[in-house]
Structures are given as C-alpha cells and as structure tokens.
Specification:
Distance between the termini of chain B: 32 Å
Distance between the termini of chain A: 97 Å
Strand content of chain B: 5-15%
CATH topology of the largest domain in chain A: Herpes Virus-1
Strand content of chain A: under 5%
Number of helices of chain A: 7
Oligomer: heterodimer
Radius of gyration of chain B: 16 Å
Structural class of chain B: alpha+beta
Number of helices of chain B: 4
Number of strands of chain A: 3
Number of domains of chain A: 2
Strand order of the largest sheet of chain A: 1-2-3
Radius of gyration of chain A: 41 Å
Shape of chain B: globular
Number of strands of chain B: 3
Helix content of chain A: 55-70%
CATH superfamily of chain B: Ubiquitin Conjugating Enzyme
CATH class of chain B: Alpha Beta
Order of helices and strands of chain B: HEEEHHH
CATH architecture of chain B: Roll
Shape of chain A: rod-shaped
CATH topology of chain B: Ubiquitin Conjugating Enzyme
CATH class of the largest domain in chain A: Alpha Beta
CATH architecture of the largest domain in chain A: 2-Layer Sandwich
CATH superfamily of the largest domain in chain A: Zinc/RING finger domain, C3HC4 (zinc finger)
Strand order of the largest sheet of chain B: 1-2-3
Largest sheet of chain A: 3 strands, antiparallel
Helix content of chain B: 25-40%
C-alpha cells in the first residue's frame, strides 16, 4: 500500500517541477524577465528602507550622545570659540581700516626681507660706523637681533621698530622712499603689494 | 609719574642734547616731566632775528617717535605729515633754526606777515628786527 502510494506519489512529485517549468516556458521569456526585475526592485527597496532606518536611528543616537556631552561640559569649547572668532575678525577689521587709511598692510610688511644682525657680516659688507644703530630707537644692534630691510633703498632697522612705523606710514624713515609706487610713476602695472591688501579688503567686506 | 617707562630713545636723545648741544640751540627736560622740554633757539646770524632768543616748549607725545614732537604754532612740514622716526628733537630744532634763516612766505603761519614779506621784503625785515628787539631780547 505504502509502496504503491509512494510510487504513485513519486511521479506526481516529479511531474510538479516539470509542470512548473512548463508553465514558466508557457508564460514566455518576457514574463520571466518581468518577474526577475520585480524581485530586484523589491530587494533594492528593502535595502534602501533598511539603510534609511539605520541612518535615522544612528543620527538619533548621535544627537542623544551630544546632548549627554553638553551635560558633561564638553559644549564649553563652542562657547569659547564663538567670541574668539568674532574678536579676531574685529581685530582684522581695525587693522585693515588703519592700513587702508595710511599705513601698509601687515601682509605687505611681512613680505619685506628680514635677517638676523651679525657684526661680522656687517663688517664683511664694509658698512661704516652708525649703520650698526637703529635710526628709530637709536639703540645699537646686538648680535642676532632681528632686522628688517626696506626693499628698495636697503635701509634696515629693528624689525619691531620699522614694522610699527610702516603700519602708520608707508615710507622709509631715513630716505622717505616709499615702497608703494605712486600711480603716476607706474600707470599700467598694479604691483602685488597693492593687490594683496585690496583683495583682502574686498574679502573682508564680503564677509560682513 | 610720567618719567616711568621712559623709552630708551628719549633718554639717549636727552643725554646727547645736554652733553653736546647743537650751536645756538639748548633743550633741557623739565624736572617733573622728562617728556617736556624747555627750548631756546638763538636767532641765526645775518637774519632779522639775530640777537634774539626764541623760547619754545616741546612735548614728546606718548607715540613718539612714531609721532612728531608737539611744539607751538610752527608751520613746518616735518612736524606734520613729513614726520619720520629717524628725525630727532635735535633735527627738529635745527629745522626751526633754519626756518628763521630762510622764512617760507609760501607756507605761512600768518597770512598778513607773509603778504607783507612778499610785497615789501625790506620793510618786513625791519619789522622782524624790531619785534626781535622788543619781544625776544632774552630778558
């Protein structure tokens, strides 16, 4: 009985997939492709949904953790940084305002050559007496002091002394040689030294 | 109080003004304020101001030497826009002395005197001599 039923069942079971395949082939290749595509779309939708869910949950987790941080006092740096930025910007503005009024921009001043004083090097260059003294503070240069040289006339001074003057007035204290060419002398070319402060000023205005 | 934190430059200038004064010029700091100087300039020889002693007050502002010394009403470019930190009290006073030798009626302090000087120099020079005798005889 049982063997019969098994035998009877076998052809039935084996006939099922073949009939399924047959039905598939009956349905045609077009349907097969449509089903495959549908499966793909379903799969990708599921993936996308899970991705969105993960992100949302992780963001929720992160925001809750930053809340915890703020309670722990880690939010303090933000409070410190904000006014510091403002202060820096304000200082920039005043410096730029002063520079645009008469003196040179600190960026331009910093572009002038600077060097360390060395008595031996000065003697080698054959410089006479009096050139070892800063004309601004009237103090003699000491070994390894930082000096700055005016680019055109070559007069040098203590770095701090000449920088303080150039911020107020764009001229050499000794010969009044101005490192900024007058518009009449160079009508066609705009020197870089003028371009730099102008572009900075424009950027500064845009920021405000 | 004002003498604390006196820049080395001012000390050096003062020492040199006292130890080797320029001819016809004397400048001595006030006792209570080292930035305040009593100045005397002798009228240059062969000028209408010869024989005169011209007293001035000079003050070194906080920004000195980045700003010019403060003097009375003297029309001199180096005391205004032509100031340079390479100039000193001595050079400023020498410039004033030179101005007495060669007045500049094109950049006057007093328009009336400049007009007088330009229209009738001989008469203006006589007035200058008289005023020097009257007001700057060093009394």
């Amino acid at each position: 009985m049982s063997s019969y039923s098994a035998a009877a069942a076998l052809p039935a079971a084996s006939s099922q997939p073949s009939s399924f395949l047959r039905s598939l082939s009956n349905l045609g290749l077009g349907y097969a492709i449509a089903i495959a595509l549908g499966l793909l779309v379903l799969l990708s939708t599921l993936l996308l949904a899970s991705y969105v869910c993960c992100r949302a949950s992780s963001r929720r987790r992160r925001s809750s953790s930053s809340e915890a941080d703020s309670l722990g006092g880690v939010v303090l740096p933000r409070i410190i940084f904000v006014p510091e930025d403002d202060e820096e910007e304000g200082r920039d503005n005043t410096v730029l305002a002063a520079a645009s009024a008469v003196g040179l921009d600190p960026v331009v001043i910093a572009s002038y050559p600077k060097f360390q004083f060395s008595a031996a090097a000065e003697k080698a260059k054959g410089k006479g007496e009096g050139e070892g003294t800063c004309a601004i503070c009237l103090c003699e240069y000491r070994e390894a002091e930082m000096l700055r040289m005016m680019p055109d006339c070559g007069h040098s001074f203590h770095l701090m002394c000449i920088d303080a003057w150039l911020r107020l007035n764009p001229s050499c204290p000794v010969c009044r040689n101005s490192p900024l060419p007058t518009p009449q002398s160079t009508p066609l070319s705009t020197p870089l030294s003028e371009l730099v402060p102008l572009s900075q000023f424009a950027g500064d205005r845009r920021r405000r | 109080m004002a003498n604390t934190n006196l820049p080395r430059r001012i000390i050096k200038e003062t020492q040199r003004l006292l130890s080797e004064p320029a001819p016809g010029i004397s400048a001595s700091p006030s006792e209570d304020n080292m930035r305040y100087f009593n100045v005397m300039i002798l009228g240059p020889t062969q000028s209408p101001f010869e024989g005169g002693v011209f007293k001035l007050e000079l003050f070194l502002p906080e920004e000195y030497p980045m700003a010019a010394p403060k003097l009375g009403r003297i029309c001199l470019d180096i005391l205004k826009d032509k100031w340079s930190p390479a100039l000193q009290i001595r050079t400023v006073l020498l410039s004033i002395q030179a101005l007495l030798s060669a007045p500049n009626p094109d950049d006057p302090l007093s328009d009336n005197i400049a007009k007088h000087w330009k229209t009738n120099e001989a008469e203006a020079v006589e007035t200058a001599k008289e005023w020097t005798r009257l007001y700057a005889s060093g009394a």
